Amino acid sequence: MTVRLLDFHADWCGPCKTQDPILDEIQEDLGDAFELQKVNVDEEQDVANQYQVRSLPTLIVENDDGVVDRFVGVTQREDIETALSEAGA
C-alpha cells in the first residue's frame, strides 16, 4: 500500500516555514515508509482545489483507499506520525 503525505504550502507562508523542519525530520526517520509530496499552491492551484485546500499549511495523509487524515495549520510531529501509521506507513 502506498502512503502519501501531501504538504500544501506557499513560499510566502510563515507557518509553512515552521512546518518544513518537522516534515524533514519525519521523512529522515521513516524513510521509504511514505512518500512526501510538496504542493506549492501558487504553482498547482488545480491540485489545491481538488483537495479543497483553503488554509496553509494543510497536510493530507492518504493511501490507496483515499484520504486518511487532514491537518490545517502547523501540526506536531506526533500527530503526523500517528496519521501515517494509521494509513499503513
Could you characterize what this model shows?
- This is Thioredoxin family protein.
- Keywords: Disulfide bond, Electron transport, Redox-active center, Transport.
- This protein is α+β, with helices and mostly antiparallel strands.
- Helices cover 38% and strands 28% of the residues.
- It is built from three helices and four strands; from the N terminus they run βαβαββα.
- The protein has a four-stranded mixed β-sheet with strand order 2-1-3-4.
What low-confidence regions span 5 or more consecutive residues with pLDDT below 50? none
The side-by-side strand order for the widest beta sheet comes to: 2-1-3-4
- Note the total helix count: 3
Strand portion = 25-35%
Overall form: globular
Order of helices and strands: EHEHEEH
Helicity range: 25-40%
Main beta sheet, described? 4 strands, mixed
End-to-end distance, in Å? 8 Å
Count every beta strand, where a strand is a DSSP E run of 2 or more residues: 4
Rounded mean pLDDT score: 97
Give the radius of gyration.
Answer: 12 Å
Q: What is the SS-derived class?
A: alpha+beta
